[in-house]
Specification:
- The chain is built from eight helices and two strands.
- By secondary structure, the protein is mainly alpha-helical.
- Helix 1 links the parallel strand 1 and strand 2.
- It is flat, with a radius of gyration of 21 Å.
Length: 205
């Protein structure tokens, strides 16, 4: 990714992209976009606003609600695990994190209704899909994958924890994700994650 360097006297260029309205041009209804708009304005930052007509882009919402729900607790369990300073409590926190990974693994290995052919004589017992909701990345993946990447790097560095190899669904998911430019090219370097968690990971006593 190309980076731009600015002199000390040159103000950086800031471009705020917000959801477009019904006409595809004016500012649309999005509280998150409005929040950023207000914060930048209040801070006196000079910036340009570009509206994005979301109807011109692929629909990214998952088809199945469970695809959003399945990984909802995994990062909270990781945070509790990495921040725990008590050695005697480490096993308990690690087991809680593992349970969330196992829950995710079960979902990833369970065939979705789309994978089951009602007219086929062969039963599909294990899913072969690439991602949470099918063979295409959705918002559910955009929400979960960055968290899994952080867990994979930080937990290994500070707790010597690795995602078990027998969680085949999770590893199939991660392998497919890392093969996608949309994910692999947006991941921070391992050193960035390790540096961030250096002050968060509590030494156990």
């Amino acid at each position: 990714m190309e980076s731009r360097q600015h002199s000390s006297t040159e103000e950086p260029e800031i471009e705020l992209f917000v959801k477009a309205g019904l006409d595809g041009e004016n500012i649309g209804n999005c509280p998150f976009c409005q929040r950023l708009f207000m914060v930048l304005w209040l801070k006196g930052v000079k910036f340009n606003v570009t509206t994005v007509d979301m109807t011109r882009y692929p629909h990214l919402s998952p088809k199945y609600k469970e695809s959003f729900d399945v990984g909802s607790d995994i990062f909270a369990k990781f945070s509790a695990y990495i921040k725990n300073p008590r050695k005697e409590a480490n096993i308990s926190f690690e087991k809680a994190l593992l349970r969330e990974f196992q829950r995710l693994d079960v979902y990833l290995n369970m065939p979705l209704p789309d994978e089951i052919d009602q007219d086929s004589v062969e039963d599909v017992t294990v899913s072969k899909r690439r991602f949470l909701d099918g063979d295409h990345l959705t918002l559910a993946d955009c929400n979960l994958l960055p968290k899994l990447h952080i867990i994979k790097i930080a937990a290994k560095k500070y707790r010597n924890f690795e995602i078990p190899a027998d969680l085949t669904g999770v590893w199939r998911y991660l392998t497919n994700a890392y093969a996608c430019d949309e994910f692999s090219h947006t991941c921070p370097a391992d050193e960035e994650i390790e540096h961030t968690y250096a002050s968060v990971a509590r030494k156990m006593t």
